[in-house]
Amino acid sequence: MTVPTIALPDGTPMPVLGVGTWGYAEQPARRRDEIDSLRAALDAGLTMIDTAEMYADGGAEELVGEALAGRRDEAFLVDKVLPSDASRHGTVEACDRALRRLRTDRIDLYLLHWRGRYPLAETVEAFVELRDAGKIRAWGVSNLDVDDLAELDEVPSGDQVATDQILYNLVRRGPEWDLLPWAERRGLPLMAYSPVEQGRLLDEPALREVAERHGATPAQIAVAWVLDHPGVSAIPKTATPARMAENRAALDVALTGDDRAVLDAAFPPPDRKRRLEIL
């Protein structure tokens, strides 16, 4: 049940499909289902688990740590530091807190959640320190547009960025104008969050039409469309074990030219620059 991978700039393989945990650990009654979902994800080969210190004020990290108990080596763990903690000292402290909550000694990919008041150079300096200490394997960013990435490229060690996690789906196609081409030229993988637009895409007629052609679900088509773009991974959020198998099956969908035409007609690509959207 091996999931295909994308090579990070240093050659490290990153799964193209994983699981987001935004919204986890917010309702105690759902905790068992959420833990079971993450374990079901590992069983299905969905080993990339994305979380953040912001999610439930660290509660999602704790839940992920519980779910991965005894199985940490199976997972590719992605975490994010808040901009308010992203000074050099604050980033190191935030990472140490995250490691304790996650019950692990390392994070595979540690991201700046979005840009804040601290200079990028300061955050990158902390990332390099953490990587050299073995606490993280690689570092990246989230919600940064082309101009931010170009600025990042100019700071010391900024060219070591491993990914940019962005909002990208059929109704958020702005990145296709410049961010996707920019990243592809530089060999920078992108990671798409909310590929199903938090479920709001599921009733779209065009998605249902394409899904019927493939004997698939609209969610699978939405995820497959994101993964159809070279160098792009996806982290749909799912909180039930059964849905993990559904997400995994999105990898088996091969979109045709006709499928793409139907989806382009319903969700046109951008005709101008649009600022990167954030949820």
Summed over residues and divided by their number, the pLDDT gives a mean of: 96
Second rung of CATH, namely the architecture:
Alpha-Beta Barrel
Strand content: 15-25%
Distance between the termini: 31 Å
| Main beta sheet | 8 strands, parallel
Order of helices and strands: EEEHEHEHEHEHEHEHHEHH
Overall geometry comes to globular
Assembly context of the chains: single chain
Question: Could you name the CATH class?
Answer: Alpha Beta
Find the CATH superfamily: NADP-dependent oxidoreductase domain
Poorly predicted segments? none
Spatially, the strands of the biggest sheet line up as: 3-4-5-6-7-8-9-10
Do you know the CATH topology? TIM Barrel
Q: Structural class from helices and strands? A: alpha/beta
What's the total helix number? 10
- The level of helicity is 25-40%
How many domains? The number is 1
Number of strands: 10
Descriptive notes:
This is Aldo/keto reductase. Pfam families: Aldo_ket_red (PF00248). There is one protein chain. With 279 residues, this protein is α/β, with parallel strands linked by helices. It has a single domain (13-266), classed as NADP-dependent oxidoreductase domain (TIM Barrel), CATH 3.20.20. It is built from ten helices and ten strands. Helix 1 (31-43) packs across helix 2 (59-67) and helix 7 crosses helix 8 (218-227).
